[in-house]
Amino acid sequence: MRIRAGDETDLDTILALGDEAVAWMAARGNIHQWGTMPWTQSAGRAQSVRNMIAAADLWIAELDGEPVGAMITGDHPVPHVQPVDEPEVYVWFLITSRRHAGKKIGSQLLDKAVSLARERGISLVRVDCYAGGTGDLVRYYERNGFVKAETFTAINDWPGQVLVQRI
User: Fold this and answer.
1) What is the pLDDT of residues 107-132, one digit of tens each?
2) Does residue 38 sit in helix, strand or coil?
3) CA 78, CA 131: separation in Å to the nearest integer?
4) Which residues form the N-acetyltransferase domain (predicted)?
5) Is 35 inside a domain boundary?
6) Exposed e or buried b for every residue in 19-58, given b needs 16+ CB within 10 A?
7) How many other C-beta atoms can be found within 10 angstroms of the C-beta atom of residue 160?
């Protein structure tokens, strides 16, 4: 797998990954995390992703030249999460292709975030995620070396969990 820097030309790739994820989650009854509307049909979702790409660093995971995952990292948290009093790498966004599940794409992208922190002399990596449903997503991050920190509630009573990893 190759992880490369991305840019605004990768927007359609991210939206397609979002469509795939929404369909997969909805088929399993998870309609609260990202809803049911395909991302390619949502001008608001496209603008939100476009804004993140413009404000932070986009990383694209590829297998044999095919984009199979994306991660956006910043040097501060997203607006619904409290900032901390130290430098950090914050994972704003992480998505992987469900067609390639089991290939550790998300884990390798998270390893990239840790690597970025090390390169920059930063000892904290944080991420937040949907904390509802079965809790599988929180456990996923825990399996990848993160530990639970604070919880939060975002718009429309969306339950969130912040997780941290010390380097």
Assistant:
1) 999 999 999 999 999 999 999 999 98
2) coil
3) 16
4) 1-167
5) no
6) bbbbeebbeeebeebbeeebbeebeebbeebeebbeebbb
7) 18
Full domain range(s) for residue 99? 2-6+57-166
Q: Residue 88 belongs to a domain with what CATH number?
A: 3.40.630.30
- The angle subtended at Cα 165 by Cα 136 and Cα 121, nearest 5°, is 150
Per-residue pLDDT tens over the stretch 43-80: 999 999 999 999 999 999 999 999 999 999 999 999 98
Residue 152: enclosing H or E segment and its boundaries? strand 147-154
* Domains contained in the chain, number: 1
Residue 115 lies in a domain: yes
Is 44 domain-assigned? no
Strand partners, 58: 72
